[in-house]
Automatic annotation (TrEMBL):
Gene3D superfamilies (UniProt xref): Medium-chain alcohol dehydrogenases, catalytic domain, NAD(P)-binding Rossmann-like Domain
Name of protein: Enoyl reductase (ER) domain-containing protein
UniProt GO MF annotations: oxidoreductase activity, acting on the CH-OH group of donors, NAD or NADP as acceptor; zinc ion binding
Cofactor(s) of this protein: Zn(2+)
Length: 349
């Protein structure tokens, strides 16, 4: 166990549904009670995810119900304390990442398969409640903070040489898309792949991302307007797989799929989505949600990313400027992921 126990946990907290617009407050908080399989992590980086904004705006529940609410589930930092039952081979000094789920029952069929995200007692990294150990009943605090404490089994080592700032968005955005691509046969059974966002075939609002999509390796670009049905004319039945990284209605995007194609929803929206059952039936289409399985998949993703030098494009913001970063994020200024940086913890702007 590290002798470094003289540190204060601080985080940027919201107390009502409007605080994300520029009124988060930095405050100290008590971490969960210590368990011997825990680690303490000095947070260097934390990505901003669209889900954070949904939660902070009260889209799923009133912020006051979880106040003080400290978001962030794309956190990366240095292990500074380990318990006697530490897992994942972690030791003081290891650089780790923590994603959207940071505990589970460890006993159900999904946990045994290392698909902990499907566990009925999974604990989300923020706005959740621990169900086991000394921390049972404790409300979780996320990565918009100086430190994180939680089960070492859910703190994943970042490969040596991989930029830890780039690793932050991989903990949610990266693992979600990686899981969807692999699970639904991209490049194997699905030869023609489109991503609503940026992908092999990029499907995006307007022309603004065309050049940048090409730089990222996209070979085709479909510019859509508010009239999606008109925008996709001429591109019908060209794709085996479409991965949607935005919320909203997608009925007209189904026209892009070949018969027996698959549409994967990889982003969380806040409104019901109408679907044409005629399109599903006549095309033999599949619509499915994407969610990373668990521990094993994180390792596979980072091994793949390190081997092929795959890194996200990020904008770094000093975490002290979080009340500027979140409004910029909601205004669509991210190119293409925003990462908050704790410079005092060793993060680099």
């Amino acid at each position: 166990m590290s002798s470094d126990s003289q540190y204060t946990f601080q985080g940027w907290a919201a107390r009502d549904n409007d605080d994300y617009k520029g009124s988060l407050k930095l405050q100290s908080f008590d971490p969960k009670p210590w368990d011997e399989d825990d680690v303490d992590v000095r947070i260097m980086y934390c990505g901003i995810c669209g889900s954070d904004v949904h939660v902070l705006s009260g889209a799923f529940f009133p912020v006051s119900a979880m106040a003080p609410l400290i978001c962030g589930h794309e956190l990366v930092g240095e292990v500074i304390r380990v318990g006697s039952q530490v897992e994942n081979g972690l030791e003081v000094g290891t650089i780790v990442g923590v994603g959207a789920v940071s505990n589970s029952c460890r006993e159900c069929e999904y946990c045994v398969e290392e698909c902990e995200v499907f566990c009925k007692k999974r604990t989300t990294t923020y706005a959740g409640v621990f169900h086991r150990g000394n921390g049972a009943g404790y409300k979780t605090k996320g990565g918009y903070a100086s430190h994180w404490r939680g089960p070492s089994a859910f703190a994943y080592p970042i490969p040596a040489g991989y930029d830890p700032a780039c690793a932050a968005p991989m903990m949610c955005a990266g693992i979600t898309v990686f899981s969807a691509l692999r699970r639904f046969g991209a490049g194997v059974t699905a030869k023609q792949v489109g991503v609503i966002g940026i992908g092999v075939t990029t499907i995006s609002r307007g022309e603004a991302k065309r050049q940048e999509a090409a730089k990222l390796g996209s070979s085709n670009y479909i510019a859509v307007s508010d009239d999606v049905a008109t925008s996709v004319k001429g591109c019908e039945r060209t794709l085996d797989l479409v991965i949607c990284c935005t919320g909203g209605s997608y009925t007209d995007y189904l026209k892009l799929l070949k018969p027996r194609g698959t549409f994967v929803q990889a982003a969380i929206g806040t409104s019901p989505v109408p679907i044409s059952n005629i399109s599903l039936i006549t095309g033999g289409l599949t619509i499915v949600g994407a969610l990373a399985d668990g521990k094993a998949e994180y390792k596979d993703m980072f091994d793949f990313a390190a081997k092929h030098n795959i890194k996200p494009w990020i904008n770094r913001w000093d975490m002290k400027d979080i009340n500027k970063a979140l409004p910029a994020f909601t205004n669509g200024e991210a190119k293409y992921r925003m990462v908050l940086v704790n410079t005092e913890n060793g993060g680099s702007l």
